[in-house]
Design a protein that fits this description.
By secondary structure, the chain is an alpha+beta fold. The chain has helices at about 5-10, 15-25, 80-85, 110-115, 120-145, 150-160, 160-165, 170-175, 180-190; strands at about 30, 35-40, 45-55, 55-60, 65-75, 80, 95, 100-105.
Amino acid sequence: MKENLRNMLKSVNILTDSEITNGLRYFEAKSFEKGDFLIEAGKICDWLGFVNTGVLRNFYISSKDEEVTYCLTFPNKVISAFSSFMTQKETFENIHALTNVELLVMHQNQYYELMNSSENWLKFSRFVAEQSYIEMEKRLLALQMESAKKRYEDLLKFNPDYLQKVPLKYLASFLGITQRHLSRIRREISF
C-alpha cells in the first residue's frame, strides 16, 4: 500500500532511498467509507495523510449556513486540515470522503520527529508547503479572474476525474456557482 507514496517521494528528487524507507515507517494505513468524515469543524487535526485511493472534499459552513466546497483531493496528494495541524487549534473545516478512501496517515508528533531526522525531510516539507500555496493561489486567482465557464473548461481539460467522481452539487460549490448555472454551462459546452 505504500508504493504510491514511495513513488511520489522519489519523484521529487530531494530524499535519498534510505530517507524514504525511514520515512515510510511513520505512516500507517487507514480506510474510510464513502460518507465518512475524517475531521469535523471544531476539532483539532493531529494528522497528515497521503491519499492512496479515493476522493475527498474539504468544506466549511458559510455565514448563510451553506456548505462551501473549497478543495477536492484525489490520489497521490497530501491532505490535512493544515492550519489546525500546524497550530493545534480547532479547525473551521470538514474533510468528507466522497468515495471509499485509503490513506497513509502520520500523526503530528511523528511528523516533527521525521522533519528533525534530516535536512532533506525539511526541504521536502518546504517543497510540499510551497506547492500547496501555489495551488491555493491559482485557485483563488481563477475564482477572481476567470469566468465560471472558463473555470469549468479548465476542469474538463486538466482534471477530468473531477467530473466523473464528484457529485454536481459539490462541483458547483467548488466552482463558486449554483447547480443551475453549472447545468447551463454544461449544456453550452456540449453543443
